[in-house]
Amino acid sequence: MNLFDLSGKTAVVIGGSGVLGSAIAEGLAGHGANVAIVGRDGEKAQRVVTTLENNGAVARAFLVDVLNRDSIESMAQSVIDWRHQVDILVNCAGVNSKTPFFEVSDDEWDHILSVNAKSIFVASQVFGRYMLERGSGSIINISSVSSGPPLSGVFAYSASKAALNSMTQYLAREFAPHVRVNAIIPGFFPAEQNRKILSEKRVEDILRHTPMARLGEAKELQGAAVWLASDAAAGFVTGSLVTVDGGFTAMSI
To answer: Does Oxidoreductase appear among the keywords (predicted)?
Structure first.
């Protein structure tokens, strides 16, 4: 019995053209899922699709503006028209900032909260309603270790990810028993949204606080994502915040 078989399932990975999202998409596709790579950059999304197709997967790129409800709804319908179903939603879009607290503008606050929290709210409404009508589904949100306790220097980002954790657990209750909602909490993985804050000094501080003594590799999120996506392996798992951080949050002095 293959507990992690996703054959016949369709996964939508919002933010699937990024470093973490594309790795998660690769893991889902490698276990049999058809994958919609959703992003704002069509060329980047298509490159991910080409890689997946070269490995024998069924994949297609879709454009979306995660700040626009109509765009999310249109994308969802396009994916359904393509594969006639959606079984898995991965919310992986994100943006970060190292702006000091007293210099954070209203516009920057609104942008970060909109990308990292409001877009998950809208996508969960759109796909959650569809999944509940079908009677099954798995939603996987990508959070961050900065969701709590918050890290220094990333005020708005930390607040947005804390909101995402709360939404995850709320929706797990709201959508049960037919649709499962969980979050993966990555530690430090080099990705687009955190490269600008990972200075040499900050990386040194992180590594001293990480028992595994290194940064994560994007492919190391695949196992958690495949597990949470699979009904057979994680059919009783909902409302969980699954940490993949090399021991960062377990570290004290």
So the answer is: yes
CA distance 134 to 154: 39
- pLDDT tens for residues 185-222? 999 998 765 666 677 888 899 999 999 999 999 999 99
Specify the pTM.
0.96
Measured distance CA(72)–CA(51) in Å, rounded: 24
Active-site residues, by number, are 157
- Beta-strand ranges (E) seen in 178-232 are 179-186
Q: Can you list the domains of the chain with their CATH numbers?
A: 10-248 (3.40.50.720)
Q: Name the residue among 95, 206, 210, 208 with its Cα closest to residue 154.
A: 95
CA distance 138 to 160: 22
Q: Which two tokens stand for residue 246?
A: 């090399």
Res. 151 pLDDT band, cuts 50 70 90: confident
Give residue-wise pLDDT tens across range 25-37: 999 999 999 999 9
Select from 142, 170, 119, 167 the least CA-distant residue to 27: 142
- CB–CB of 182/242 below 8 Å? yes
